[in-house]
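Step 1: inspect the first sequence and its tokens.
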Amino acid sequence: MPVFEYSALDPHGKSLKGIMDAESALAARRKIRNTGKFPVTIRELEESTSKQPGKGFSLPRLFRRVKPAETAIITRQLSTLLSAGLPLVTALDTIVPQMKAHAFKTILAQIKDAIVEGSSFADALADYPETFSPLYYNMVKAGESSGTLEIVLARLADITEKQQALNSRIQAAMIYPIFMGFIGFAVLAFLMTVVVPQITSIFEDMNQALPTPTVVLISISSFIKSYWWALFLLGILLFILFRRFRRTEKGRYYWNKAQLGFPLAGNLAKKLAISRFSRTLGSLLANGVPMMNALAIVKNISPNVLISKAVENAAEDVGKGRGLAQSLGESNIFPNLPVQMIQIGEQSGELESMLGKIADIYESDVEISILKLTSLLEPLIILVMAVMVGFIVISICLPIIEMNQLVL
């Protein structure tokens, strides 16, 4: 159903703004008048998100996707307004007109209408799985059941903000090495396709035996200059095939297994996964979600198949009466530190707070690991560049040196 943004006047002449769904602009105008308001302007919003979004990739869907940072901001605002005593529908009415993102504005307007029609907040969120994760839905559901929705929303905002802050720090740390690698690749491509052919063309006219490095350099340069388009198409083809293979169950398993085995990067990926596991599970348990349901949610949102399988096996063992720490320790995926801390949390009855401490520890370790990784990548990129440029320089200088010796 189309969604309309409107401005209206109440019986006292006060200007109001809001969003509603209606079959047409005329129906929206009638709907506003039925509430005792006088419509001034009505504008249809672009239909940006349906209740059952299709899977697959498209550019419109990519640009209309709701960002996690937007979700965190709205969650924080809702928590603040609910804590101030405003009803949920009134809080949504206050927030929606101030939003700039039309996609999220439409979603929240439809959620508000679903609540007005009798749905719970959690059930309304369930219609938008691409925007609100299973963690978000289940925590809101638990908050509604316990009457602590504003507290749950504040915790959800904390979780989302911490994840966004960590992701931002990781991206900021990786920008410089990626930039250096791109510049290095561009410089080498320019040397091999423009500079080297012009210089080596002099040697080809001399009818003289060239040194092996020079012959290798000329061959590589000629191949790249003649078949760069084939190399480009081959790179795109390999990228597409890799993406399709990674989407399969078998391909995802082998890729995730390889990720955990990479030097430095594998350890970083494992720490990130354990941090997310601990933060999510601890938040769910702290908000009253049963252990079995919480483990099922964590399993579904885990980015790594191996960790997801370990959590699934742990859930089966917990269902049989075994401890969570014992089962996770047998998976050979979780290190000793989180396993021991979970065991202490189970024995002391403070599992939720212990999981939060695990997440804090591993988030700090991730930041340290990122600094170590970038400190190694930068000199490594410079070294590779130096070796390749040095090879080009030596290959060009060797024939010149030999010619000088012949002249002398």
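Step 2: inspect the second sequence and its tokens, then contrast the two.
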Amino acid sequence: MTRFISVLLLLAAGTWAGAAEPTRAESLRLRRTPVVDAVERSHAAVVNISTERVVAVRRGLGPSFGPGGDMFDEMFQQFFQGPVVERRKVQTPLGSGCIITPDGLVMTNEHVISRATNIKLSLDTGESFDAVLLAADATNDLALLRAQATKPLQAIRMGSSADLMLGETVIALGNPFGFNNSVTSGVLSAFNREIQVPAGGEMRSFTGLIQTSALINPGNSGGPLVNVLGELIGINSAVVDQAQGIGFAIPIDHARDALAPLLTNPQVSEAWCGFRGVTVEGRKGVRVALLDPQGPAQGHLKADDLIEQADGAAVTDYFDFLIRVVQHKPEEKIALRVLRAGQPVEVTLTLARLPMPSPKELLRDKLGIAVQDLTRAVARKRGIPLDTGLLITEAAAGSPAEQAGLAEGDVIVKIESSPVRNLQDAAAALRTTMAGDAVSVLVFRQNYLAYAKVVLAK
């Protein structure tokens, strides 16, 4: 009996020893969680956004004798001569973003790039690209960039914020405090939060936000919030300074709706479909709302047509449809499946290039105004406490602008949700509007701000 018990103990010890030392493959399998899988699916689509500038560094002079900067360096060299200045490129981290199309379209927060110049994007592979700002929506704190990449990039998988569950696991990716490729996880804590954040000396309100316990720090802004499938469900946006473990993100469905109009901007898309659409309730397609009489859709689509597919893939909303248009060139064809009066119809559109009148012609034709960029010199001469904007020099009698109460001397600072710093900004905000649209215009007038609703010329 004693011998039998000894044998059993030896066998048990052998089994325990085998269980205590799993193989390398078994160890990796045990450690792999849904969070690990989600990060692997999405991290390659996350970019670090920084701005690059050239600074001058005086060498061999001991303490600095002035404030530095280009002007001082030029004066110093002029009077003392000698190679005393070394110029270096310095990158300042701004925030994060996520790639949404293989051709380099990047979504981020507007506040991340609002004052950026020479924008640089970098991937976790160490690759970096220059980027240009295509369009921005300050009201919703969203912006679109284009990476100047020479090869296709990995785009993040789009999810939906319509079916989010309280308590589900979420993952925030980004570059907090300049530390590249950081990951935090938590749970979805609440819906429809409203917060106020300081911006440009004033408080800005944001509503309908996702609250999460995933840590979001400065530098995470603009980066993706994903679910355990690695799908984009939000854009990390803000953190409460005095609260630990509370972060906020813009729901991706809201971001898609806000960004859709920006995708029709000719700076974003070379191709033009020639109609305006609206997302069907429940995100089950796009309904044709308004056809441009001179556009490529005229004679092919009809008002109230419901677009269900584009290029053989299901269309969920207007953003989804326009993302497919963005990836086409003018003169290329896009195949659509539509429901017309309940019957399926196959339609093929040949995309065109959006007509491009000059910015001054655009504002004259649509608003009936003549304008000039507000320079610092002009602003000081007129006693206007602004450095940028668009000065109205004439509002034609009976024009849409004049009927809305705009007048010579007003300075346009915003059209709809787009800040207007110059003529190009104003033209970009108006280029895809159509005759009869009512457009909100914010102007600076005699030391106060005034809104006007302008009905565009037909």
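Step 3: confirm your contrast with the notes below.
The first strand starts at residue 46 and ends at 58. DSSP finds eleven helices and 27 strands in the chain.
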